[in-house]
Amino acid sequence: MIKKLLLLQLFVLVTLCANAQVPTMSSEAMKQMKVENLSDDQVRQVVAEMKKNKMSLDQTDSYAQQKGIPASEVQKLKQRIVALNLDKELTASGNGDNAAGQRADTRTVDEETDSRAEPMTQAELQAQQRRRRIFGAELFSNKNLSFEPNLRMATPGNYQLATGDEIMIDVYGYSEVQHRLKVTPEGYIRIPNLGPVYVNGLSMDEAKERITKQLSTIYSGIRSGNTFVSISLGNIRSIKVLLIGEVSAPATYTLPSLASVANALYVSGGPTENGSFRNIQVIRDGKVVATFDLYSFLSSGDMSNNVVLRDQDIVRVNPYSTRVELAGQVKRPAIFEAKEGETLQSILDFAGGYTDIAYRDNISVQRINNKEREVLTVPASEIGSFKLKSGDRFYVDSILNTYTNRVTISGAVHHPGDYALTQGMTLADLIRKADGVREEAALNRGLIRRLQFDRSPAYVAFDVEKVLNGAQAHALQREDSVFIFNKADLRESYQVKISGEVNKGGYFPYADSMHLEDLILLAGGLRDAASLQHVEISRRVRNATYSGSDTALAIIRQFDITSDLRTDAAGFVLQPFDEVTIRRSPIYNEQGNVYLDGEVLYPGLYTINSKTERISDVLRRAGGLRAGAYPEGAVLLRKTFVNEGDSLLLSSKLDIFYNSQADTTAVSKLENTIAKKEQLLGIQMDKILASPGSKYDLLLEEGDIIRIPKRLQTVQLFGEIYFPKKVRFDKNFSFRDYVRGAGGFTSSGLKRKSYVVYANGEVKSTKRVLFFNSYPKVKPGAEIYIPTKKEGRGLSGSEVVGLSTGLASLALVIITILDRIK
């Protein structure tokens, strides 16, 4: 019954934790909690609550204190978390109470700056940046590093037992028994059937020896060697350690009993800007028992002085005594702390030594004296004995970016590059080292770029051919650069061009002895439309004597070719920059199509069979018009250039035409049929049918679209009428009848500029006969447009005053003149 009650209480506790609420269970109930009775899901809920609060595994003690879980169950809870691999889900640092064993601040400087309620001052920012540069500070600001103690390793033999530790005793052999015993506050473990055994202060090895000796009194097999005893550490105790001095977060921390000085420093955030990394003291019972030097670990990986802490130990971080800065060409430039007696060589060792380009003869020093600063120079021979003073700033310079014995050759040689200058070396020797000049080298002149005494450049010219023959000898100097030029680099890039009816026209590199046939082959051959006659070659006029009467701009030659590229220009060789033109055959024509749509017997694409074919001819080939066709409304669309500023009527008419089509499937199949480059061309189909071949019967062109609509029965009205609409066509109605049927003209309508657009695209405007308007006739499918009057602007007040004044002045002048005449 009690067990069930405990499980119920624990379930309530975990549920409350998951909801981030403080449990309301009594302290007596909390003291009876047993972690071994928790299910895996309940442990996961506890981890989720800790993760929500950004707590680490080391902060389980703090979590237990907040929730009232007994201290004896904390280690068991940690083991359950580790066994379920849930420790990885917990963050490396927490945000709880410092006294519960977590780091006070594990954020980086940037994160800390972002999370501050107020921006950092300039002094605070400089202090943070300076701390970053201190050698060793990165261990405490890098969140990828962790000094947490490994709780899953085998217990060290020198581990000292104390109150709160749990000892696991396994007796096996002739006798088998297991015990899990906790060290009492008095320092004893109570073995059943044996009595108390004092183990407080003993190491694991000493405790094993004492416990085995006591067990041998009740298990005779131990003395005879038939029974064995295995002793290990179960749950470890927690200890409280006080960190004081120049530490980022001084406080009392609860740590596992396996924690060392490095663990304590890590959870406290490490030394401050003024804290020492080399003089960290462990004080036990009022005495300094160890001094931790972090540089031993950083420089050589030595952790021998990283002692294991005990309960009530004090870790004191003292202020630094001597710090110097090493910058420049060293592998790890930083601010270093020095101990008494260490020299500049020690700081160089901490920095990893020189870089490859460091100047090692001396190191410059800036030193702060009592009243002012001074500059010192430390020769390489004194680095090992140079004494340090706090505040020294050492700088290692880099070597000069010059060479003591370098000469360079480039250009038309087989192996250009840098070469070593030897005693008495000449230009010919350097060319031989470069394996000689290449065939395309310009032999008449080369250059040597030489640095003079003041480092200004100068050029020395030489004859390459004479140098190679030994007729000239040029002694080389340090940093000389020799240039052997390439003939091709000294002239414009030679090209030839071919255009016209070839498959791949364009520019091609020129080569000696290139012929017309070669260039045609390089261009992929001739097109089907190419003419074999009058192939034209144009050539630049060059190397000619100037004459004032000479007006020639180019040399033109024409040749005929055959289909197998044989020409009558067999001896004609192309020259650089020649341009070849292959023209189109005058009798070659590609098929041209027109599209016939609407009320014809056989609509579709038709090929133009001659240059004289007209609209009536293609209508005859299409079988003529259907019975319901309306010839007067036929339209012709012809490809042309239409600018954005052209008539808006054209765009509107095209849109209306295409939007009114009942079946546009066939039209959409024709490429580029609906495009701005097609213009409506008015035709009179009734006159074309009546008089084939007349002036109304236009010649066909490629891309023409002819459509004959069905008989139209409506008239559309636009513009300044009260009710623009589409109405039924009535042959007895006049222009004004249609307007009256749409409500009449508005007050802003410009009647005398009205016009009618007929179904075939023809436009007729209103005529003025004396004082009357003669409106155009309306036909089926017509569109009536009433434009808008331009708005007139009245006179402003100042204009009225000005006009009145002018008229009054004019009247006065006239009266004066009349008086004088009298």
From TrEMBL:
Q: Where is this region: Disordered?
A: 92-126
Instruction: List where in the cell it is found.
Output: Cell outer membrane
State where composition is biased (Basic and acidic residues).
104-117
Q: Where is the signal peptide?
A: 1-20
Which Pfam families does this entry report, sorted A to Z? Poly_export, SLBB, SLBB_2
- Could you confirm whether the keyword Metal-binding appears in this record? no
User: What keywords is this UniProt entry annotated with?
Assistant: Cell outer membrane, Ion transport, Lipoprotein, Membrane, Palmitate, Polysaccharide transport, Porin, Signal, Sugar transport, Transmembrane, Transmembrane beta strand, Transport
Domain Polysaccharide export protein N-terminal, by residue range, is: 155-219
Q: Please tell me whether the keyword Lipoprotein is annotated for this protein.
A: yes
Domain SLBB spans what residues? 240-317, 406-445
Q: Which domain of life is it from?
A: Bacteria
Occurrences of domain Soluble ligand binding (ranges): 324-369, 496-543, 594-639
Protein's membrane topology: Multi-pass membrane protein
**Family affiliation:** Belongs to the BexD/CtrA/VexA family.
Listed name of the protein: SLBB domain-containing protein
Q: Lineage of the source organism?
A: Bacteria, Pseudomonadati, Bacteroidota, Chitinophagia, Chitinophagales
